[in-house]
Amino acid sequence: MDHGWIVTFASDQIAPVQVSIASEGGSGAPVPDISIEVDDVDEIHRRPRALGFEITYPLTDEPWGVRRFFVRDPFGKLVNILSHTE
Question: Are the beta carbons of 72 and 53 closer than 8 angstroms?
Fold first, then answer.
């Protein structure tokens, strides 16, 4: 996948591994320190909110086929949590 601002390299293994290199976070967001794909982003979104973590980018359906949000972890790292919508 190559959107110009992010390039993702993926394996074709059963449990594929991906490495992305980003120059921006997409949709005007900053570049996250790490991205984590989950099965149910809505459920995961509820957890840090309930614990009072800082959500720095709201739960959003992006035009490139992911639903995601950014949260700042206790060490100050910006985490992009996402699920593919397609």
Answer: yes
